[in-house]
Amino acid sequence: MLAKLPKDQQNYLKITVDPFYVTTNLPFITCIKHFILIKSFPLTKLPQHDFSHHHQQYILILSSSAHVSTAKYEITPRPFEKIYAFGDSYTDTGNTGSATGPSSFSYVSNLPYGQTFFHHPTNRYSDGRLVIDFVAQSLSLPYLPPYRNATADKSSGVNFAVAGSTAIEHELFVKNNLTRDITPESLETQLSWFTEFLESQGCKDAKATPQKCKAVFDEALIWVGEIGANDYGYTIGSSVSDETIQELAIKRATDFLEILLYKGAKYVVVQGLPPTGCLTMAMYFFREDYRDNIGCVESVNKQSYSHNTIYQAKVEVLRKQFPDALIVYADYWNAYRTVIENAHNYGFNELYKVCCGSSGGKYNYDSSGPCGSPVSTTCANPSEYINWDGVHLTEGMYKVVSDLFLHGAHTTPPFPYLLSIKKKSQ
After folding, report:
1. Which residue from 31, 242, 261, 325 has the least number of CB within 10 angstroms?
2. What pTM was computed for the model?
3. Among all residues, which ones are annotated catalytic?
4. Helix, strand, coil: what percent of the chain each, to 5?
């Protein structure tokens, strides 16, 4: 870009700023971390930026008569200073890897995982970014570091989600001899990690340490990603009934939310389950005549829909129990269905076939040749696919779902409403 600029233009400053301060009504000198006088080009727009780090370098263009200390811009305050996230592999940004995550996806630490955006594996179960990454980006925050990364900067939030995590504690699965492919972490684990983290900040709960917890939660968005799908998946074909799993999983998730609210959480987003019958693995294992009106496995979709209906009712109870908190329900089930019903409008040509898999055929899926294995292949255009590896989604799909959430189409109350309430409190 610089090579194309005329050499006889006005001076400009190369500066490093926090992304929050790209627009500001404060004297701009207050936003500058450091600056270097270099040569020049004409007044123009700031380049687009990537919020994957706290601070980015930008080019500030000033006319020859401008003075840094008096230049003023319109400010758009960053709505939240941090995000704390929970959930399973749909939200995990690196708490597991090939050796520690679900054994069915033992190549997550290798390419092609991560190829689309990061261009290297990040232990995300996708070709690129997840919903939580797009949420962070939309709020001008850095991508959340995983809790298990001991050296990461966690001043802007932490991700406690674990791939393979269940809502129900691990002991139930051990008791029923259901541990072959199960990550031992559950919501109970994530809560213990979060509690430990809060105590390091001096926060025990809203009653015992009100000021410390207020400092933690007033500027924090709590994002509880989808949780519970693994509970059902791990018990398929076992003596544990779906009804038992539904009752226990919803209770554990509701109890988890209640504890977060008691600790002082004020702004909470809770995701429901997606239509799990539309995931390639389900379609691969269930007979073709078990399909619903959008081509997915009917019984599995009904299961996740029923789960969500009960879960939403529990969330409504919590809203009444904690009237000072704002709890948004993100309807993953209907957001996903909206995309399937309007796939071409969103740029998707493959609704059920995986981008990264093996065996070719209708689904390009074979559990014995998972994504990343020597026998697997990867499609040329992941953005045209909804399914990435049979269970997890492509960055393209996560981006569309996140847009539906963030713009309020499938959130109750709408996510923009949460932002407006937060803005009024500033």
Report:
1. 242
2. 0.83
3. 89, 389, 392
4. 35, 15, 50
